[in-house]
Structures are given as structure tokens and as C-alpha cells.
Specification:
Layout: E1 2-6, E2 9-13, H1 19-29, H2 37-49, E3 56-57, H3 58-65, H4 69-81, E4 85-88, E5 91-94, H5 96-104, H6 111-126, E6 129-137, E7 140-147, H7 170-177, H8 181-187, H9 203-216, E8 219-222, E9 229-237, E10 243-252, H10 253-258, H11 261-281
Antiparallel strand pairs: 1-2, 3-5, 4-5, 6-7, 6-10, 8-9, 9-10
Helix pairs in contact: 2-3, 2-4, 3-4, 6-11, 7-9
Length: 282
């Protein structure tokens, strides 16, 4: 068995169906090694499956990772039994256990405490509720940090961990604006869920607004998620201009619109730049 590391994935080449017997013999004869090749094989399959959001067969995954098909199939079944994968008519996809573990992971070396410093400071400066959401995928956001304003009438409802509708939240619109119109059409139905009488429920109207979001660099909601709630969000990019998150300010619509909305945008954009620099340094 030969292994190589390519594109962040361990790829393993096997030459015969007796690879497991050979592996056991090699491990017994070799110098002490704390790595386990079966685990490495399983991890290579798991990592490769991340490239197939719609799922893949054992044959496809075996070919992509260089594993023998019987070995790949056995490992995939084992991971499916443990909840790491789902086997639907011979097609494997990532399982709920992966999602649960992913939400517990902190790949940015304790990102939340670092971000919270900026969120708290910005909330004090603007005296409105501030939130930071991480882009966990092309179409998913995870709010990881928030700070309340000092107003008695505040918009905060402890949104951390809650799933917000993409078309009716300012951070969601930032995420959608990062997609093409074709991707948005494939993602969202023609008739969108209504939360208030001001919610944009027509996908074509939403597409027009997303074009404006791309052009101006920020997104807003005005009474679209809850009546009386106004929110503005700006994207956070990494050094290669990839969207990695969004930072938002939320409050009562009359209060925020009575002030200059551009004041919020300017401060959010400054914080976005600072957070981007911070994350690149972690």
C-alpha cells in the first residue's frame, strides 16, 4: 500500500484485495507507529465525501481516494453504522453525527472569544445589537457571537444557534448575494416564506435586491423578519476575497432609521476589515 497527500486529502493506493492482510503483516513487522492505516483510509473517504454534497457511491469514492472498492465499501458501511454517513440505496452522504460534531468544532483556534471583543466594542459604540455569523458553507451561516444594546427596547432575542431565513435576514442576504442568480434560483423556491407583511416573498424581487446588495456592499432588512426590526449587515472576506462571515447591527426600525444608516455601515465595514485581519492571523 502506498499513500500520498494531495489537495488536503490522504490518497491511498492498493494493489490487491488482500490489502487488509498485508496491512496487518506490515504493521506487525514495521517499527512502532502510532498511526492506524484503517483510520487514515476512513478519513480519506470522509474528506472526499465532503466534495460530493449530493452523495457518491462506494465505487466513486474508492476511485477518488485510490482505495480498493471492497475496502472502501466496508469502511463506508462502518461509518454509516456509527452515524457518520447515510447509506441511501448504495449512495453515501455525510450523516447527522458529522453535523453535530462540526457544530462543536472550533477550527479557528477559539474564534468566538476573539470575535466577541469586537462585537462588544461595536455594540457599545453604536448602542445597538451586534452579531457575527460564520459562513459554514456556500448556503449556510452560523451565528456565533452577539452583543446587546443598552436600550430597554432591544432587538436581541439570543439568536446564537438559531437558523435564520436567508431571504429575510440581513446576514442571509449577504450570503445569497455571494451566489450567482442561477444558484439562488436553484436554492430558493419561487414563493418564499412570509414572516411579516413586508417580507419579500417573490424570488424575482429578491434577485433584484441581491443585485443591489452586490453593488453597494451591504444588505438590510426593514420589518421583513419581525415588525419593528431593522438590520444592516456587511460581508467579511478573507485575504483571497472569499466570503467567510457577516457582521450585522440590529435594532428598532424607527430608531435606526432616524440615525444615519451610513454611520452603521461605515462602522460595520471597519469592523469587518479588522475581523478579517484578525482571522488571517489566527
Amino acid at each position: 500500500m502506498n499513500s500520498r497527500f494531495e489537495d488536503g486529502v490522504i490518497r491511498i493506493q492498493e494493489t490487491d484485495s488482500g490489502a487488509d492482510v498485508d496491512e496487518a503483516r506490515e504493521e506487525a513487522d514495521a517499527a512502532p507507529d502510532l498511526t492506524n492505516r484503517s483510520v487514515l483510509r476512513a478519513m480519506s473517504l470522509l474528506a472526499e465525501l465532503g466534495n460530493h454534497p449530493e452523495g457518491a457511491t462506494a465505487a466513486e469514492l474508492a476511485s477518488a481516494t485510490g482505495l480498493a472498492r471492497p475496502t472502501a465499501y466496508r469502511l463506508l458501511l462502518s461509518m454509516a453504522h456509527a452515524g457518520m454517513m447515510v447509506n441511501t440505496d448504495g449512495k453515501f452522504s455525510l450523516g447527522w453525527e458529522i453535523a453535530r460534531l462540526g457544530r462543536l468544532a472550533d477550527p479557528r483556534s477559539g474564534l468566538k472569544p476573539h470575535i466577541q471583543v469586537y462585537i462588544d466594542r461595536l455594540s457599545t459604540d453604536l448602542n445597538e445589537s451586534i452579531g457575527y455569523a460564520v459562513a459554514t458553507g456556500p448556503t449556510t451561516l452560523d451565528l456565533i457571537a452577539e452583543a446587546d444594546s443598552q436600550h430597554m427596547l432591544s432587538s436581541s432575542q439570543k439568536y446564537v444557534g438559531r437558523k435564520l431565513p436567508l431571504h429575510a435576514s440581513s446576514t442571509g442576504k449577504v450570503l445569497l448575494a455571494n451566489l450567482t442568480d442561477e444558484q439562488v434560483v436553484a436554492l430558493l423556491p419561487a414563493k418564499l416564506q412570509e414572516f411579516t407583511r413586508f417580507t419579500i416573498t417573490d424570488r424575482d424581487l429578491l434577485l433584484r435586491e441581491l443585485g443591489e446588495v452586490r453593488a453597494r456592499g451591504y444588505a438590510t432588512i426593514d420589518n421583513e423578519l419581525e415588525e419593528g426590526l431593522f438590520s444592516v449587515a456587511v460581508p467579511v472576506h478573507d485575504g483571497d476575497s472569499n466570503l467567510i462571515g457577516a457582521i450585522s447591527a440590529s435594532g428598532l426600525d424607527q430608531r435606526m432609521k432616524a440615525a444615519s444608516v451610513h454611520t452603521f455601515i461605515e462602522r460595520l465595514q471597519r469592523a469587518s476589515s479588522e475581523i478579517s485581519t484578525l482571522i488571517r492571523g489566527l
